[in-house]
Amino acid sequence: MAYQEKKWQNFYENAWAIRAEFMSQFINMGGYNALQVIGELEKKERYYHLAINDDGNYEWKRKKSESEKFNFADIPHYGITSLNGMTILVPFYTKTNFIDFIIDALSFDEYDSVVELGCGYGQNLFKIFYNGGGVNLRYFGGEFTSSGVEMAKKLASIEPNMRAEFFHFNHLKPKFDKKLDFGKRVLVFTYHTIEQVKEIPDNWFKVVASIAPFVRCINGEPFGFQIKDLGEVSKEHRKFFIKNGWNLNFASTLKKANQNGDIIIEDAMLEHSCRTDPFNPTSIAVWRSV
């Protein structure tokens, strides 16, 4: 049975709304393109995170770092990440660029559109547009939260050369409006959005595979711990997901969809990550329609 705890739905609705309020001030000032607005938020979130205080209100809270700092500014030397099941110390700005992976994937085949499911305020799609996606590609973003969809549309309104469309999408009840024209060949991707859904439905892959004559999907989701322990991080990863009520059936549902002939799995990696969160590494699954 597909399931997601209500508290996580509410958390992300509120979190995107607060981020939208922060970004809107730059749009209202004028002179900013979408990528610059997104950059302002990312700059803030390198040092602050949204937290819920004792009164139940959201606030920006300074991140803690055990690293030594530069003398001239409060910038850490190092950060902690994980690789192959082990925590490692890396330079503060080290981070796997999943979006470059999507951009490169787009360049190795012909696609009419790129679709992100669970797109938040569309930040990944705008980055693709500015860093190699081009103006001929169509961009679609599906998002559960109303605040995320509204902010994505607001950012798209200041990018007249980007053919972008944003719509409501629910991982628990995957369906697409027939008015959405994705074209004949589509690249779909998700990135750490299915993770918050405790159980995705059995038909998730079949529904996504049916949106166009040819669909390829890249899921950048944390599911490696569901298959094999690579080290201590994998064990902590599993405990963290069980505690939060996060996804535990991605791997089994993917395997079942492949066995049923709904999709064809092309690639799978237990870990492909040096994320800022050391205990939530990314796994990769690439599959296509039959």
3D structure, described in words:
This is SAM-dependent methyltransferase. It is a single chain. The chain is of the alpha/beta class and 290 residues long. It folds into two domains: 6-62, no CATH class; 98-289, Rossmann fold, CATH 3.40.50. 33% of the residues lie in helices and 23% in strands. The chain has helices at residues 6-29, 34-45, 98-107, 123-133, 146-156, 204-209, 232-244, 250-259; strands spanning 48-52, 58-62, 78-83, 86-91, 113-117, 138-143, 163-168, 185-191, 214-221, 263-269, 283-289. A seven-stranded mixed sheet has the order 7-6-5-8-9-11-10, with helices on both faces. It has a two-stranded antiparallel ribbon with strand order 1-2. Helix 6 links the parallel strand 8 and strand 9. Helix 1 (6-29) packs across helix 2 (34-45). The longest helix is centred in the N-terminal third of the chain and has 24 residues, at 6-29. The model has no long low-confidence stretch (mean pLDDT 94).
CATH class of the largest domain: Alpha Beta
Listing every helix as H and every strand as E from the N terminus to the C terminus, the arrangement reads HHEEEEHEHEHEEHEHHEE
- Strands of the largest sheet, in order across it? 7-6-5-8-9-11-10
- For this structure, the CATH topology of the largest domain is Rossmann fold
Please provide the count of β strands: 11
User: What is the first-to-last residue Cα distance?
Assistant: 25 Å
Q: Which band does the percent of strand residues land in?
A: 15-25%
Rg over C-alpha atoms, rounded to the nearest angstrom: 19 Å
* CATH-assigned homologous superfamily of the largest domain: Vaccinia Virus protein VP39
CATH architecture of the largest domain: 3-Layer(aba) Sandwich
- Which parts are unreliable, with pLDDT below 50 for 5 consecutive residues or more? none
Sum up the overall morphology in one term.
globular
Total of domains: 2
